[in-house]
Amino acid sequence: xxxxxxxxxxxxxxxxxxxxxxxxxxxxxxxxxxxxxxxxxxxxxxxxxxxxxxxxxxxxxxxxxxxxxxxxxxxxxxxxxxxxxxxxxxxxxxxxxxxxxxxxxxxxxxxxxxxxxxxxxxxxxxxxxxxxxxxxxxxxxxxxxxxxxxxxxxxxxxxxxxxxxxxxxxxxxxxxxxxxxxxxxxxxxxxxxxxxxxxxxxxxxxxxxxxxxxxxxxxxxxxxxxxxxxxxxxxxxxxxxxxxxxxxxxxxxxxxxxxxxxxxxxxx
Length: 268
Hints:
By secondary structure, the chain is of the alpha/beta class. The chain has one domain (about 5-265): Protein of unknown function UPF0759 (TIM Barrel, Alpha-Beta Barrel). The chain has helices at about 35, 55-65, 80, 90-95, 125-130, 155-165, 205-220, 255-265; strands at about 5-10, 45, 70-75, 110-115, 135, 140, 145, 170-175, 185-190, 240-245. The strands form two sheets. The protein has an eight-stranded parallel beta barrel with strand order 1-2-3-4-7-8-9-10. Helix 7 (about 205-220) crosses helix 8.
């Protein structure tokens, strides 16, 4: 990333049949979808890596099809996060990072690790996992973010642990998962998951305006005043931050329209 204070709004993936003729033009070839979307948005969350791995050629292809300044985020493997003892994930992490991710070069954004809603907070085991996360890969700097989905993480001990390891907490705008808006790193990662395909832009205009204000607050070194923190007494250093925000809701047909609109609001 060339400088802090960058706000990048995106969606999850780029291959989705219902987007064809709705977000993608009817005349667009499927092989050109990544090139098209990466010129409408500034980031895409690669979700397929949660289920399987890819060849180095795929990573190089994705890098070359996207414009300068575009950034991917990458979802960590379920074989790493869906285990009883997280501190034993070393071998799984090795396999994940050996697939060629570093081929993205400066288009590689944060690696995002998602945990099941049944995974409870075990401070020692969770710290063991965070200690395994590499800081660089083939000379490419790495940043990590974690999304937790169990209420046991709603304790000040959790964001404090993330801060010790320079790991970002993922804020989840979700109907049932805990909302944890504590800033724990020099960047912020948010997943907006309560959109609706009944709305042309996934979120209503007033809600997108509200989200634009929150993203700007984070980017400018502050914090949104209307989002819940589990450690409200901690004030992070007020300095510019990169912000990644992804509109990802159940139907997701209107997610790209919402992301384009939200990006326009934060740029305006």
